[in-house]
Amino acid sequence: MSDDNQNEKEGRVSPLKALSGASRDIRKYTHQIWLAGLGAFARAEEEGSGFFDALVEAGREVERQTKDKTESRVEEIKERVRHHTGETMDKMEKAFDDRFNKALSRLGLPNKREVEELEKRVQELTQALDSVEEKAPPTKRGSRKKGE
Fold this sequence. Notes:
3 helices, mainly alpha
């Protein structure tokens, strides 16, 4: 007696027969996928280049939308980086100026602010001297010596 007949008599189901139902389902599903592919191919053939052109246009639209979003996002990130970099550069410039001014101070050289104050003071003194000379009586040209 075969094993299948003996298993049937004992009420046991063969593992191969148990799989045959699942295998049929897989075959059916696979066949449906095949038919769907054939249907898509047939439809593309029927609609011809119009269908293809519609797909290309849909692709262009998706690409454009993606590109627009990407470009705006890139610009946003660039702006944030510029802002951050600008702040960093400002801090670096200030630190450089501070150190440079300290070095000038140690050497006994005036910094920009001090030079500007001296220029302003010289202008004030020049104006004061000019106004005093205007009020003074005229003198003989030859009476003043050249270094006085």
